[in-house]
Amino acid sequence: MKKGVFIGLGVIGMIVVVGMMKNPLIYERYQVELEEFESFMSSYGKVYKDDDEKLMRFRVFKDNLSYIRVINLENHSWTLAANFFSDLTFEEFSNIQLDKSLNDETNENPDFNILSSNEKSLNLPNSIDWRAKNAVTPIKNQQSCGCGWAFATTASVEGAWKINGHPLISMSEQQLVDCSSSYGNKGCTSGTIVNALKYVQANGLANETAYPYTASTKLCSKSKAALVVAKISSYNSVQSSSSNSLMTAIVNQPIAVAVDANPTYWQFYSSGVIDGNCGTTINHNVLVVGYFTIAGQTPYYVCKNSWGPSWGMSGYVQISIVDGLGTCGIQTSPAYPVV
């Protein structure tokens, strides 16, 4: 028996292990999984309140590893891997990271100027990546606050501000979380890009240093919010259900979008192009920073997420380009600021 097999599993866990010892193959597999779990805990700084919770999280972790292995054996165009969320069930992940109310609150608005497919460029470039043009700040982490809407909004403003001749500045998500409730947003509970852009148009944004992120909803600090470093003059939407319109818009600047971050695809996403039927039940927001339409390859959008740099492709996800509402509903309601 390897040293440490029983550590932190409590009486119930010890009984389970003793039972497994009767079958060497099962016990050996259990040892490997336990070592993987201990490595996972160490890598991500996971601490549990007691042995019972640790055992429960270990079981969830094992189930998730099994799911990841099965999906990867199916040879999809994307792969999954264990990450910070590996000790959460799909339901827990959804409740913590996603916004279930977004599906009932589209980013469409009658005041928008809508970029339609009739305005598309006749010769769209095969690819564009605003990261290469220094118009995208480093990956951020919303943590256990369901405010992807705030991160997608600040990211879109950061890009537009840079493209219009200003320095690239990391802007404050916390300001939007705390201060935009009168525009219809609800902090860590829910919000939309449109409501956030309305707030930015009226009030501007402070930078991240002046109004730092806390991953919680607090009272608006008027003194911090007054330290404005960027403003926008208006905001527009892109025609829904049109890949040509969205790509045309991306040529000009990064675009904030709403998506269905279905946990069966997104929770453990590691690499590749998501091209499956991940749904159109909108529950999250990301920033499209580019697209690639290279001959012989699946065309895809490159999206900046807000779940930290250890998630996905160093914080990014690739979503296949198709018409209609798009893969994961990415063409449901794109929007962008005008500086």
Task: Walk me through what this model shows.
The protein is an alpha+beta fold. It has two domains: 10-75, Helix Hairpins (Orthogonal Bundle); 90-338, Alpha-Beta Complex (Cathepsin B, Chain A), CATH 3.90.70.10. It contains ten helices and twelve strands. It has helices spanning 10-20, 24-44, 51-73, 90-97, 148-163, 173-179, 193-203, 222-225, 243-252, 263-266; strands spanning 78-80, 113-115, 127-129, 205-206, 228-230, 234-238, 255-259, 269-274, 284-292, 300-304, 316-320, 335-338. The strands form three sheets. Strands 1, 3, 7, 8, 9, 10 and 11 form a seven-stranded mixed β-sheet that branches. The chain has a three-stranded mixed β-sheet with strand order 2-6-12. A two-stranded antiparallel ribbon has the order 4-5. The radius of gyration is 22 Å and the shape is globular. The model is unreliable at 1-7 and 107-111 (pLDDT under 50). Residues 37-93 form the Cathepsin propeptide inhibitor domain. Keywords: Disulfide bond, Membrane, Transmembrane, Transmembrane helix, Zymogen. Residues 124-338 form the Peptidase C1A papain C-terminal domain.
Please give the share of residues in helix. Answer: 25-40%
So how many helices? Answer: 10
Order of helices and strands: HHHEHEEHHHEHEEHEHEEEEE
**Count of DSSP strands:** 12
**What is the H level of CATH, i.e. the homologous superfamily of the largest domain?**
Cysteine proteinases
What is the typical, i.e. mean, pLDDT?
Answer: 89
Tell me the number of structural domains. Answer: 2
Show unreliable segments. 1-7, 107-111
> What is the CATH topology assignment of the largest domain?
Cathepsin B, Chain A
CATH level-1 class of the largest domain: Alpha Beta
Major sheet, described briefly?
A: 7 strands, mixed
For the terminal residues, how far apart are their CA atoms? 65 Å
Content-based structural category: alpha+beta
Could you say what the CATH architecture of the largest domain is? Alpha-Beta Complex
- Strand coverage percent: 15-25%
What coarse outline follows from CA principal-axis ratios? globular
Calculate Rg over CA atoms: 22 Å
